[in-house]
Amino acid sequence: MKPTTRTDSDHVDHTSDRDCVIAGGGPAGMVLGYLLARAGLRVTVLEKHADFFRDFRGDTIHPSTITLLGELGLRERFLRLPLNRLETMDAVIDGLRMTMVDFRTLPAPDRFLVLAPQWDFLNFLAEEAAVLPNFELRLCTEATGLVVEQGRVRGLRATTTTADDPATDTDPATSTSTDIEIRATLTVAADGRTSALRDAAGLIPDESGVPIDVLWFSLPKPADPPPPTLAYLSPRGMVLTIDRGDRYQSGMVIRKGGAEQLRAEGLPSLRQRIVDAAPVLRPVVDTLTGWDQVKLLSVQLNRLDRWYRPGFMAIGDAAHAMSPMFGVGVNYAIQDAVALSNAIAGHLAAGDAPSGVLAAVQRRRELPVRIMQRIQRAGHRVISRTTTGAHIAPRWVIRLIRLASPVIRPLAARFIGIGLRPEHVTTPQREA
Ligand SMILES: Cc1cc2nc3c(=O)[nH]c(=O)nc-3n(C[C@H](O)[C@H](O)[C@H](O)COP(=O)(O)OP(=O)(O)OC[C@H]3O[C@@H](n4cnc5c(N)ncnc54)[C@H](O)[C@@H]3O)c2cc1C
């Protein structure tokens, strides 16, 4: 670790008051920040990294989110980015290809899912938010604690890091850290599943046992690629192949805690497992030449019993870590942001963040989250069979599912693409 020069820890730079301060520049934090600033409120979003460029994060933008972008007047600009549109989702189960989801059955115009690297989506939001006069994004700024006075959260503490030599960004041999304090009517933890602010607020999530983890890696597409396929499942394993233009963002589902054993078996064994599960990757799997190309992502599923305290609320993965199952986590995080913004903007304008309103937001969002997490848990049980050499279901069941797929497709499109209780933007747009 490179040395960091700390300023005198007694020195805290007190910044001006904000209506809302948000820890975390992920999908939840950026959408909430945009919506509140668009309503004329003074918002600061803190992101601990220097940019949004982190790989292996949720890449799926679902029809419900595209509809929300339309409500904000951002849809057309967003869709002009270089994105992949998916109208259907195929899976290959025990060698049988089936189309399980058909977004073309959804109401027009948002009849497709977009695969966009998350950094493109977040950069897009950051650029759109930057023109709003009351929006402030502070990169390289890590929320470290809460300011609590008389039982009410009044803001947060953070450490902001600046490079001594700007040409070397924030990863220089030396950098300077400054402790800051930002006071706000509402403090929001949107800092993801390892949320520091949630901990600081004394909120502890209930964990659901998860039997799987995912190894992520990127592979070039073979010269003659098959139709877009989300996953290959068989007793030989499960491999995800998310389309990213000329490459696949690929994931191999492994048993929870099994990564060390795979490492010990060596890279040739991993390559063989990948090919066994998804033979279509045979021509490209040799591009995986080092473990530095493979990232372990520990799958988590949890939920806070209580998402708020006076002056404070957790949203997105900070309130309920979602599994990658069905790729809905980004969209659920965004729906939380919209629900909170709709409910709280008027109160923030009046200088208040009533706990009753925060409780109502939790009640509104908790039901869809609970149901989706229950379904994700059931899904984990099924796909974890691929890590034990078992069939995910008897062959006749798979054939039956294939036969029933014309009925399943529109239902799955609605469930995955729009979800339960989709939010719509009712937060007003105001000039600052
Ligand atoms: C392996 C895997 C694959 C997934 N694939 C998909 C998928 O394809 N589609 C999908 O929809 N979902 C997917 N998910 C789930 C999805 O990534 C999350 O549900 C979603 O990103 C949650 O958004 P968020 O804004 O709540 O949190 P995050 O996306 O985690 O964002 C939190 C942000 O806060 C920042 N931060 C953290 N701590 C601090 C701090 N103290 N101060 C300041 N900033 C901080 C982080 O750097 C980060 O930018 C996947 C999850 C996993 C584990």
UniProtKB/TrEMBL annotation:
Superkingdom, taxonomy of origin: Bacteria
Pfam families per the UniProt record, alphabetical: FAD_binding_3 (PF01494)
Keyword Oxidoreductase: yes
Keywords for this protein: Oxidoreductase
UniProt domain FAD-binding: residue ranges: 19-367
Protein name: 2-polyprenyl-6-methoxyphenol hydroxylase
